[in-house]
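A protein record in our archive is deliberately plain, so that people and models can read it alike. The record that follows is passed on verbatim for readers who wish to inspect the format.
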Amino acid sequence: MWYWIFRPFVIFLSKLFFKLNVEGIENLPKKNNFIVVANHTSYLDPFILGAVIPKKIYWLAVRDLYKASPAVRWFFHVTGAMPDGKSSENLIRLLTNNKIVGLFPEGIRTHDGKLNEFRRGAALLALRTGRPIVPCAILGAYEAFPRSAKFPKPRPIKIKIGKPQYLLKEFEDVVDDIRLQEGTFKIRSAIEGMMHARQ
């Protein structure tokens, strides 16, 4: 319930303060669930991206954020977020139960606005479940609220939703390392391409 209460509130504030613009909403799969993957530039990222995608996203969050305050822990609980670490089986369970999972493969927010190297978790989930990856590029959130700032600034933010990326499901218990590297490269390249495309 709380997820759907927060969503219109976040959209309203994002359009008011950040002139939020969304491109590619038609690329979201309509008949099956998926894995949302995006670059990570700001604390704003999961809130805005979660608001513009019209389905509940179960986010994977950095475990240290759960130590921030009781309010943060409460917010993560009611929105269905979960700490990183030994959570791959939980995410696989969510995906096989037709839920949508969201990850930031860089792991931490960028220091300079540029795209960092990706961890392989998103590719692993796609290979284990056969669910498509929906790559998203978040533009402007770094300028609005970089990790060095205490408060956000009213800067334009744009979300680009790319076409689904499919990785052939792996039925073996152990996923081949080369396939993981190839999948991770494919996902990162899709996001990097949208970040550098003409806006």
In short: The first helix runs from residue 2 to 18. The mean pLDDT is 88. The chain has one domain: 2-196. The chain has seven helices and seven strands.
